[in-house]
Every structure is written in structure tokens, then in C-alpha cells.
């Protein structure tokens, strides 16, 4: 019954894919730009989180509570808790809370500033231009972002604190042991909550309705009094914020390294597989690819995992050109 | 180059070099290409060969992206196919005991055919999707090609992650075992490729490509078979990239799979955008800029920072940033590329002193 273990692993990584995919879909829905550089924005988010959650608290003039917040009851609780139990993991996590929050806030703010800059100075001048120009600008961004990354940070892989407690659970499923890491489970829950909230927000809030109106027809939305540039900025901010959180989650799981940027390409494949303008389709595709990768890892070994999303997207594109649930583009001849 | 093109006969109109600027430019380039191996030092030969190899590949990308309007971000995969195919075929032929002197004549067409074949397979999604979807499909293809080169299953032929030692070709009994000698081969093939692609767009096939670029449905209504011509375009484009890969393999002593990853694909498309899409001279200007800018940066940063380690560490990131900014800058401010700047320049030159621009 190893299958169940791999299925669970797949669902957990699928949730992170979904979290990253929000950024690409949100930007596409409102601005019709497919952001090839989203993976690199995530990488920048991860490095910002690393800077403010690991490097900054280590500075000599940083307040001491930032690097480790340990009131009496935490130390007591830690001493009383059993080794490797969930309680111990919880008490291990508490001292990290200030720097996690500090890091996350600055990662979101930093990515947000970058996203607004990109939107205002690179994307808005291209409003109404061909698809090709927009794609190529984001392709150029890949180089620029990765260049700035190596300008400020060295390329070494480093580890960062998990966002949530990380106990290891051992469950029995019909006699087979299944291991679940708390942090992976929690990031799956975080991803699901954020994803659900954004979909809900798009349906119900007035800003969400504005985004959907713009995605329907830009010029009509403009003439109905919707502030289209503001909608664009909002979409890029959503992408930046979810990207920063996803970057922090990924950095905690895999370590901070330049290879986080490449992650964006597999997510792009997933987004196309699900349908560029459908959150639900993308969620399904993310879960499918997550599970597919886990199964590939189980049956064929780790090396094949890296091409699983690309093969999947090629197959889906040939059968259903606009993805699982995407709406076909209507073209005027 | 709109002005200065007065023609008095159809024969004149059909010439490839139909005005004096083109004639002068091509004559200059030919003279430079001939003079280089005699006078230049090894560094300049290296740069010129890089320009030549990239040029062959970018001319191929131009056929697909510039003339047929199908965006591809996976052409490094075809370069890889060409480079590996030529090395593997040489190895096989040596194994079969075929004399060295015959080998390039089988290996070069073989490499181009292999790349063209893979190109047709990669081009299949283009029949159903275009734009962003095709870009991601070709990108995926690039990842998959590199993956298959790297995995252990084929490592006995491809050398896996460790790379492959490449052969020295033997043309008419002359073994090209120095970079200076291979440069001559590269120069000949670059000129031949540009000439052939330029000629292609004076034929029925080339015009069909342009019709597809302008509007694929309209082209189909006019009787252009999308299936046939889109795949032909992919095949020609991939074959050029395969040739570039073969030159790459001849030029360097060793090829590694990571040389043909996404970065090279982006470089090829970037060179095309910077130079100007759908123009014969576009790839030439673009490649020269894309290859030489990092070198100029290297020299200037060396002059400013001296030989210090800090300056050397900053070099790679700054090269990356400048490369990305070049793409963004050209897309934002001069989408038609350097070709268009040259057009305006020559137009102003022709009209001077009466009107500018």
C-alpha cells in the first residue's frame, strides 16, 4: 500500500503548485499577460524571506527576540514534552514565530513593490500590443530577475525556518505505515485556504467582480467606470503576495536556491494544462500533476519527475488545446 | 531600405542584393570573413565563430518565429540534437570502418535530418495551438530533449551528464582540428544558410509561410495547407538549428547537455528580437549584438574593476541583467529591431539633406 503514501505526497506538492499557479492565473485573467517570469518572482520572494527571517535576525543590532523568542512557558513546555512528539515540535516552533512573521511580511512587501514596478513600467506601456511582445518582456524579466538575485545573494542553497510546526506523524493505513510531515500538511492547508479565499473573493467582492469584468472585455469594463489600471495593479499584487508565500513554503521544504526559478516553468505547464483562465481547472491540474509526479517517482525513479509536468501538458494540449477547463479563444478573421 | 531602389527591369528587381548599401555591406562582411583567419588572433576567431554558429541557428529561428509567426522557446533542443547527432554519427561510421574523408558528408546531412525530424514532431502541437500555448509546448520539448540526453539509459551514446567528446571533421582530406580551421567551415555555412533562407522567401513555400504569419485562417482559406507548411517551417527551422549544432560540435572539443538548456533558447529568440524579426539582416545584427555585448561588458568591467575578485563576481549577474534589459528595451521601444533602425538610417542618408526619418 505504498501507493497511499505517494498519493498523499502528491496531493501535498500539488497544493503548492496550485498556490503558485494563482499568481499566473490572476495576472492572465485581468491583464492577458502570461507571466513566464513568475517562477523567478517566487525565487526573489524566497530570497527575501531568507534575508529577513535568517540573515537579518543574526545581525548584531537586531533585537534579540527576533532571532529566538523564548518566554518561560515555552521552555517549560519544551522540557516537559516527549521527544519527537507533536508537542515538542510545537514548542520548537514557537521561538521562530517572530522571525517567520517578520520575514513573511517583508517578503510580501518586497515582492509587491517589484510586481507594481513591473506592472507600471513594463506591462502597462504594452497594453493592447500583441501577445508576443508581452511574452517576450516577461522572458526578458527572467534574465533581469535572476541577474539581480545573483547580484545581491550568493548562489548557495540555504535552509530557512518552516512556517508552521513540523512534527512527523506516523499513521497506520491497513497495516502499512504512512509518514506525514506536519509542515507539508500545513502548507497544503495554507495553500488550500488561500486558493479557496481568492476564488471566493473573485466571485463575491466588488474588486473581484471588477477583475472578472476586465477579463471579459477590457474596453467595455473601462467604459463602465472600472478603474482598469487599478485592477491590473491588484492582480499583480495578488501574484506577488501568493508568490512570496509560496516562495517561503518552497524554501522551507527544498532550501533556498536558484533552482526555485525553474519551478515556475513546471507551474506554467500546469496552468496551461488546467486552462489559463480557470482557477478550478488549474487546481485540478495542479493536483493531477502532483499525484502524477509522486507516482512517477514511485514507479520510474526520481530522475523522471522533472519532465512529468511537461509531458502531461504536451498530451493535454494536443487533445484539448485550451486546457482541461479553459475557454477557447474566439478569433475574428 | 525603401529609397534608392529605382529599378528599370524585372531582372534588377529580382536580384537579392538589390541596392548599393546591401552590396557594400555584404562585400564588407565577405572581406572581413576572409581576412579574419589570416590576420586575427585566437580570441577574435573564437568570437567570430560564436557569431557564426549563433547566426546559423538564429536564421533558423527566424524562419519559424519571424516568417511563419509561430513562437518557439525550445530551439536550443534542436541545436542539441544537431550537436549530438553529428558526434554520434561520426562515432558509428568510424565503428563501421567508413573512411574519415566520407564521414562529414554523411554526418552533416544526418544531423540536419535528425533535427528536422524531431522538429516535425515538436511542431505537431502547432496545428492545434498557437501563441503562448505553442511557446510552452516548445519549451516543454526543450526540457524533454535535454532530459533524454542526460538520462542513464542513453548514456552509452550521449555520454549523459558528463558530455560527449566531439570529432574533428575531415573535408577533402583536410582535418579541421584547430578552431581557426573550423571557423572557415562555419563562415561558409553561415553565408550559405543566410543565402538559402533569403531565397526561400522568394519561392512559393516561403510566401506560404508569410501568409500563415499574417493570418493563419485566411491563409487556409486561400488554399495554403496549414498542416503541410507549418510542419515544413518547423522542419527547415530545426534543420538550420541542427546545422548550427553540428558546427558547435566541430568547433568545441566537448559538448555538455547543460549548454543547450533554456538559456540558449532564450538567447536565440533574444537575438532575433534585437535584430528584427522577419528580416534577412535581422539575425545578423542581433547575433552580433548579443554575442559581443557580454564581451564588451567583460572588457569594460575589467578596465574599471581591475583584476579584483569582486569585479569578476559581479560580471555574470550584470551580463544577465543587461541581456534581459536588451530584450525588454527592444520590445518596448523598438519592436522591429536593429533592422528598422538601419532602415531609418539609410533612408535619412538617401534623402539628406532634404528630409530626415
Ranges of chain B with pLDDT <50 over ≥5 residues?
A: none
Q: Report the order of strands and helices of chain B.
A: HHHHHHHEEEHHHHEHHHH
What portion of residues of chain A belong to β-strands?
under 5%
SSE string of chain A, helices as H and strands as E: HHHHHHHEEHHHHHHH
Q: Which strand order does the major sheet of chain A show?
A: 1-2
Principal-axis shape of chain B equals globular
Distance between the termini of chain A: 55 Å
User: Helix tally of chain B?
Assistant: 15
Secondary structural class of chain B: mainly alpha
- Tell me the major beta sheet of chain B: 2 strands, antiparallel
Number of helices of chain A: 14
The total count of strands of chain A amounts to 2
Straight-line N-to-C gap of chain B = 12 Å
Mean of pLDDT of chain A? 85
Number of structural units classed as domains of chain B: 1
What is the CATH architecture assignment of chain B? Orthogonal Bundle
Percent helix among the residues of chain B?
over 70%
Strand order of the largest sheet of chain B: 1-4
Strand portion of chain B: under 5%
Low-confidence runs of at least 5 consecutive residues of chain A: none
Q: Keyphrases for this structure?
A:
heterodimer, A: 333 residues, mainly alpha, two-stranded antiparallel sheet, 14 helices, 2 strands, B: 357 residues, ABC transporter involved in vitamin B12 uptake, BtuC, two-stranded antiparallel ribbon, 15 helices, 73% helix, 2% strand, globular
Report on this model:
By secondary structure, chain A is mostly helical. Chain A has one domain. Chain A has 14 helices and two strands; from the N terminus they run H-H-H-H-H-H-H-E-E-H-H-H-H-H-H-H. In chain A, strands 1-2 form a two-stranded antiparallel ribbon. In chain A, helix 12 packs across helix 13 (about 280-300). The model of chain A has no long low-confidence stretch (mean pLDDT about 85). Chain B is mainly alpha-helical and about 350 residues long. Chain B has a single domain (about 45-350), classed as ABC transporter involved in vitamin B12 uptake, BtuC, CATH 1.10.3470. Chain B has a two-stranded antiparallel sheet. A two-stranded antiparallel ribbon of chain B has the order 2-3. Chain B is globular and about 65 Å long. The N and C termini of chain B lie close together (about 10 Å). The interface of A and B includes residues 125, 131, 303, 314 and 321 of A.
Amino acid at each position: 500500500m505504498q501507493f497511499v503514501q505517494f498519493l498523499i505526497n502528491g496531493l501535498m506538492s500539488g497544493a503548492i503548485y496550485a498556490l503558485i499557479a494563482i499568481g499566473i492565473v490572476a495576472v492572465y485573467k485581468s491583464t492577458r499577460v502570461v507571466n513566464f517570469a513568475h517562477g523567478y518572482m517566487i525565487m526573489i520572494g524566497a530570497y527575501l524571506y531568507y534575508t529577513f527571517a535568517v540573515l537579518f535576525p543574526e545581525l548584531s543590532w537586531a533585537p534579540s527576540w527576533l532571532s529566538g523568542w523564548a518566554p518561560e512557558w515555552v521552555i517549560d513546555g519544551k522540557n516537559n514534552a516527549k521527544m519527537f512528539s507533536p508537542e515538542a515540535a510545537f514548542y520548537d516552533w514557537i521561538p521562530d514565530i517572530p522571525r517567520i512573521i517578520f520575514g513573511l511580511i517583508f517578503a510580501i512587501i518586497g515582492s509587491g513593490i517589484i510586481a507594481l514596478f513591473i506592472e507600471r513600467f513594463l506591462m502597462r506601456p504594452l497594453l493592447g500590443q500583441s501577445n508576443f511582445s508581452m511574452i517576450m518582456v516577461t522572458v526578458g524579466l527572467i534574465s533581469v530577475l535572476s541577474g539581480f538575485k545573483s547580484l545581491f545573494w550568493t548562489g548557495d542553497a540555504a535552509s530557512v525556518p518552516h512556517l508552521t510546526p513540523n512534527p512527523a506523524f506516523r499513521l497506520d493505513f491497513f497495516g502499512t505505515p504512512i509518514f506525514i510531515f506536519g509542515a507539508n500538511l500545513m502548507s497544503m492547508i495554507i495553500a488550500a485556504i488561500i486558493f479557496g479565499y481568492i476564488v471566493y473573493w473573485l466571485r463575491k467582492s466588488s474588486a473581484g467582480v471588477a477583475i472578472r469584468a476586465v477579463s471579459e472585455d477590457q474596453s467595455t469594463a473601462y467604459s463602465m467606470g472600472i478603474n482598469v489600471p487599478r485592477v491590473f495593479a491588484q492582480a499583480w499584487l495578488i501574484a506577488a503576495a501568493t508568490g512570496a508565500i509560496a516562495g517561503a513554503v518552497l524554501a522551507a521544504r527544498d532550501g533556498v536556491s536558484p533552482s526555485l526559478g525553474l519551478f515556475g516553468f513546471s507551474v506554467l505547464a500546469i496552468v496551461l494544462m488546467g486552462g489559463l483562465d480557470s482557477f478550478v481547472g488549474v487546481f485540478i491540474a495542479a493536483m493531477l500533476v502532483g499525484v502524477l509526479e509522486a507516482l512517477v517517482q514511485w514507479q520510474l525513479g526520481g530522475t523522471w519527475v522533472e519532465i512529468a509536468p511537461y509531458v502531461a501538458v504536451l498530451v493535454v494540449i494536443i487533445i484539448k488545446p485550451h486546457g482541461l477547463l479553459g475557454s477557447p479563444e474566439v478569433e475574428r478573421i | 531600405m525603401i529609397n534608392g531602389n529605382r529599378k528599370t527591369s524585372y531582372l534588377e528587381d529580382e536580384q537579392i542584393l538589390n541596392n548599393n548599401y546591401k552590396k557594400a555591406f555584404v562585400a564588407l562582411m565577405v572581406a572581413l570573413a576572409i581576412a579574419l583567419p589570416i590576420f586575427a588572433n585566437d580570441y577574435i576567431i573564437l568570437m567570430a565563430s560564436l557569431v557564426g554558429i549563433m547566426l546559423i541557428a538564429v536564421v533558423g529561428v527566424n524562419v519559424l518565429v519571424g516568417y511563419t509567426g509561430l513562437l518557439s522557446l525550445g530551439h536550443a533542443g534542436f541545436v542539441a540534437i544537431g550537436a549530438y547527432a553529428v558526434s554520434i554519427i561520426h562515432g558509428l561510421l568510424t565503428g563501421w570502418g567508413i573512411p574519415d574523408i566520407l564521414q562529414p558528408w554523411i554526418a552533416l546531412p544526418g544531423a540536419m535530418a535528425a533535427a528536422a525530424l524531431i522538429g516535425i514532431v515538436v511542431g505537431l502541437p502547432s496545428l492545434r495551438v498557437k501563441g503562448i500555448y505553442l511557446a510552452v509546448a516548445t519549451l516543454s520539448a526543450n526540457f524533454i530533449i535535454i532530459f533524454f540526453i542526460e538520462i542513464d539509459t542513453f548514456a552509452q551514446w550521449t555520454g549523459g551528464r558528463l558530455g560527449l567528446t566531439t570529432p574533428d571533421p575531415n573535408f577533402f582530406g583536410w582535418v579541421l582540428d584547430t578552431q581557426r580551421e573550423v571557423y572557415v567551415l562555419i563562415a561558409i555555412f553561415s553565408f550559405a544558410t543566410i543565402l538559402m533562407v533569403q531565397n526561400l522567401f522568394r519561392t512559393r513555400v516561403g510566401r506560404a509561410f508569410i501568409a500563415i504569419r499574417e493570418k493563419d485562417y485566411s491563409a487556409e482559406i486561400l488554399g495554403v495547407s496549414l498542416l503541410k507548411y507549418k510542419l515544413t517551417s518547423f522542419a527547415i527551422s530545426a534543420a538550420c538549428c541542427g546545422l548550427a549544432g553540428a558546427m558547435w560540435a566541430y568547433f568545441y572539443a566537448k559538448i555538455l547537455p547543460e549548454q543547450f538548456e533554456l538559456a540558449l533558447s532564450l538567447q536565440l529568440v533574444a537575438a532575433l528580437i534585437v535584430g528584427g524579426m522577419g528580416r534577412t539582416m535581422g539575425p545578423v545584427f542581433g547575433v552580433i549584438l548579443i554575442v559581443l555585448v557580454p564581451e564588451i561588458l567583460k572588457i569594460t568591467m575589467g578596465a574599471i574593476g581591475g583584476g579584483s575578485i569582486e569585479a569578476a563576481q559581479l560580471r555574470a549577474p550584470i551580463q544577465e541583467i543587461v541581456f534581459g534589459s536588451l530584450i525588454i528595451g527592444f520590445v518596448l521601444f523598438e519592436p522591429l529591431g536593429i533592422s528598422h533602425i538601419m532602415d531609418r538610417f539609410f533612408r535619412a542618408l538617401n534623402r539628406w539633406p532634404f528630409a530626415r526619418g
